[in-house]
Amino acid sequence: MKILVCMKQVPQKDAPLKLNAGGTWIREDVSYEVNEPDAYALEEALRQKEKNGGEVIVITAGPGRAQQVLREALAKGADRAIHLEDDAFVGFDALNMARALAAVIKAEPFDLIFTGLQSDDYGYAQTGVILAELLGIPHATIVMQIESSGDGIRVKRELEAGYFQFVEMPLPAVLTIQSGINKLRYATLLGIKQAKNKPLRKITLAELQSAVPAGAAGNLQKIERLYVPQKTKNTEFIQGTPAEAARTIVEKLRNEVRVI
Amino acid sequence: MPETVLVIAEQREGRLNRASWETLAAAQTIAREMGSTVEAAVLGEGIGNLANELAAKKVGKVYAVESAQLRSYTPDGFSAALKHLLESRKPKLVLLPHTYQVRDFAPKLATAMDRTVISDCIGYKNEGGKLLFVRQMFQGKFTADVSFQCEAPWFVTFQNGAFRVDGVEAGSEAAPVEVIHPEMPEGTIRTRPEEIFKEAKQAVDLSQAEIIVSVGRGIKEQKNLAMAKQLAEALGGELAASRPICDSGWLPMDRQIGSSGQTVAPKLYFALGISGAIQHIVGMKGSRTIIAINKDAEAPIFEIADYAVVGNLFDIVPPLIEEVKKTKSRA
Ligand SMILES: Cc1cc2nc3c(=O)[nH]c(=O)nc-3n(C[C@H](O)[C@H](O)[C@H](O)COP(=O)(O)OP(=O)(O)OC[C@H]3O[C@@H](n4cnc5c(N)ncnc54)[C@H](O)[C@@H]3O)c2cc1C
Question: A160, A177, A255: which to substitute to probe chain B, counting the most B Cβ within 10 Å?
Answer without folding.
Answer: A160
